[in-house]
Amino acid sequence: MSDPKKLFIRTYGCQMNVYDSERMAEALGGAGYVGTDSADDADMILLNTCHIREKAAEKVYSELGRMKELKTARPDLKIGVAGCVAQAEGAEIIRRQPAVDLVFGPQTYHRLPEMMVRADSGEKVIDTDFPAEDKFEALKDRPKARRAPSAFLTVQEGCDKFCAFCVVPYTRGVEISRPPERILAEARDLVERGVREITLLGQNVNAYHGPGEGGDWSLARLIRALAEVDGLERIRFTTSHPNDMTDDLIAAHGEVEKLMPYLHLPVQSGSDRILKRMNRQHSAEAYIRLIERIRAARPDILISGDFIVGFPEETAEDFEATMDLIRAVNYGQAFSFKYSPRPGTPAAERAQVDPAEASDRLARLQALINEQAAGVMAGMVGREVGVLFEKPGRMDGQMVGKSDYLHAVHVSGADVAPGDLRRVRITGAGPNSLAGALA
Ligand code: 5AD
Ligand code: SF4
């Protein structure tokens, strides 16, 4: 028998891409590939790409330039481009970088083994279909490998909201929810491999409406069913839209012990004028009231968000409204981006904000968020929290894990192993992590 071929995958962008890359590795594992950490000795390189902002997409082309040199030295090397840039640009990628052998979107990676056969015979393969068959089903009988304590599980994909800045509805397609019974089976399988925490993924995860027993299940119903899975200790979900934050989901935060007190709920802007132009379909006030209701159900919940600054026509006054909203909410964490025009989306055609002004606003917004996040972390000192340990830290005898609130926590000299869930008293807060001791 010949040696197994080596596969190198580089993943860009969101957590769903991380999940998809794992599925690609499993699909190719069945076709005789083993993973490698280095592009230099790989027989096959896959770039799993992100199209959400222009910078993310441009990075792919510069990386492909480097990969081409590897291929000049080793002509048998196969190069594939997967994910949302592949979906959006298709054949254009091979036109710009002829060293690429395969281009395939987020909905077709279960077909990788057959694509590889075609690529091996010298064909350029492009597959950006939205096929009728289900990639999740095609990949369910995967090898039983041991897993890290925390795993992602895609439950919903795509988006029908069409925010004016966003490419997701075009690259990931319409909103589709997986049936709850398949999700529960995948969760049980993950637990058997050592997983104790599952983060449910979807571009619009709280719009989940999977066809199950007795009709469509809501995300809250799915979470309550997952909470019954023995050995699964923690449940999280991301990313949510404010308009799909239903009463039963809010209530679950107060009632389901395994559901962690952390909610990523992007608002993008605090100006009603901009929210309208973004097609967000809610006001700043409605968002703030929603946060109040969520905090009434779970007072200690940590709120996280996403913000876009410099959206077309954003004035200094609009930006101040965003700062006011941030002050009203007090975020434990947030991601913020300068608006990036995406071809084919409505906002790309509108009057753009001066880039220097946008950079200035972004810096001010990030300073405020950092101040709030540091305050939330400092408030953890003296408290006892759950920590799921994941791996050894950089220091001798140190272990690192994640708190209930998703903060990294370092504990030294304790007898704990990856996968242990323990109570920890927080003793100190640094800029990026907390320190603690077993309680
Ligand atoms: N420009 C800048 N940021 C964007 N996002 C989505 N599209 C764009 C864009 N065109 C941000 C939003 C979203 C996050 C995943 O990325 O804040 O919530
Ligand atoms: Fe994009 Fe999220 Fe808006 Fe959907 S809800 S269009 S994924 S920003």
Automatic annotation (TrEMBL):
<dbReference type="InterPro" id="IPR038135">
    <property type="entry name" value="Methylthiotransferase_N_sf"/>
</dbReference>
<comment type="similarity">
    <text>Belongs to the methylthiotransferase family. MiaB subfamily.</text>
</comment>
<dbReference type="GO" id="GO:0051539">
    <property type="term" value="F:4 iron, 4 sulfur cluster binding"/>
</dbReference>
<dbReference type="GO" id="GO:0005829">
    <property type="term" value="C:cytosol"/>
</dbReference>
<comment type="subunit">
    <text>Monomer.</text>
</comment>
<dbReference type="InterPro" id="IPR005839">
    <property type="entry name" value="Methylthiotransferase"/>
</dbReference>
<feature type="binding site">
    <location>
        <position position="159"/>
    </location>
    <ligand>
        <name>[4Fe-4S] cluster 2</name>
    </ligand>
</feature>
<dbReference type="GO" id="GO:0046872">
    <property type="term" value="F:metal ion binding"/>
</dbReference>
<feature type="binding site">
    <location>
        <position position="84"/>
    </location>
    <ligand>
        <name>[4Fe-4S] cluster 1</name>
    </ligand>
</feature>
<feature type="binding site">
    <location>
        <position position="163"/>
    </location>
    <ligand>
        <name>[4Fe-4S] cluster 2</name>
    </ligand>
</feature>
<dbReference type="InterPro" id="IPR006463">
    <property type="entry name" value="MiaB_methiolase"/>
</dbReference>
<keyword id="KW-0949">S-adenosyl-L-methionine</keyword>
<keyword id="KW-0408">Iron</keyword>
<keyword id="KW-0411">Iron-sulfur</keyword>
<keyword id="KW-0963">Cytoplasm</keyword>
<dbReference type="InterPro" id="IPR013848">
    <property type="entry name" value="Methylthiotransferase_N"/>
</dbReference>
<keyword id="KW-0479">Metal-binding</keyword>
<comment type="function">
    <text>Catalyzes the methylthiolation of N6-(dimethylallyl)adenosine (i(6)A), leading to the formation of 2-methylthio-N6-(dimethylallyl)adenosine (ms(2)i(6)A) at position 37 in tRNAs that read codons beginning with uridine.</text>
</comment>
<dbReference type="InterPro" id="IPR006638">
    <property type="entry name" value="Elp3/MiaA/NifB-like_rSAM"/>
</dbReference>
<keyword id="KW-0819">tRNA processing</keyword>
<feature type="domain" description="MTTase N-terminal">
    <location>
        <begin position="5"/>
        <end position="121"/>
    </location>
</feature>
<dbReference type="Pfam" id="PF01938">
    <property type="entry name" value="TRAM"/>
</dbReference>
<dbReference type="GO" id="GO:0035597">
    <property type="term" value="F:tRNA-2-methylthio-N(6)-dimethylallyladenosine(37) synthase activity"/>
</dbReference>
<keyword id="KW-0808">Transferase</keyword>
<dbReference type="InterPro" id="IPR023404">
    <property type="entry name" value="rSAM_horseshoe"/>
</dbReference>
<feature type="domain" description="Radical SAM core">
    <location>
        <begin position="145"/>
        <end position="378"/>
    </location>
</feature>
<protein>
    <recommendedName>
        <fullName>tRNA-2-methylthio-N(6)-dimethylallyladenosine synthase</fullName>
        <ecNumber>2.8.4.3</ecNumber>
    </recommendedName>
</protein>
<dbReference type="Pfam" id="PF00919">
    <property type="entry name" value="UPF0004"/>
</dbReference>
<keyword id="KW-0004">4Fe-4S</keyword>
<dbReference type="InterPro" id="IPR020612">
    <property type="entry name" value="Methylthiotransferase_CS"/>
</dbReference>
<feature type="binding site">
    <location>
        <position position="50"/>
    </location>
    <ligand>
        <name>[4Fe-4S] cluster 1</name>
    </ligand>
</feature>
<dbReference type="InterPro" id="IPR058240">
    <property type="entry name" value="rSAM_sf"/>
</dbReference>
<feature type="binding site">
    <location>
        <position position="166"/>
    </location>
    <ligand>
        <name>[4Fe-4S] cluster 2</name>
    </ligand>
</feature>
<dbReference type="InterPro" id="IPR007197">
    <property type="entry name" value="rSAM"/>
</dbReference>
<feature type="binding site">
    <location>
        <position position="14"/>
    </location>
    <ligand>
        <name>[4Fe-4S] cluster 1</name>
    </ligand>
</feature>
<feature type="domain" description="TRAM">
    <location>
        <begin position="378"/>
        <end position="439"/>
    </location>
</feature>
<dbReference type="Pfam" id="PF04055">
    <property type="entry name" value="Radical_SAM"/>
</dbReference>
<dbReference type="InterPro" id="IPR002792">
    <property type="entry name" value="TRAM_dom"/>
</dbReference>
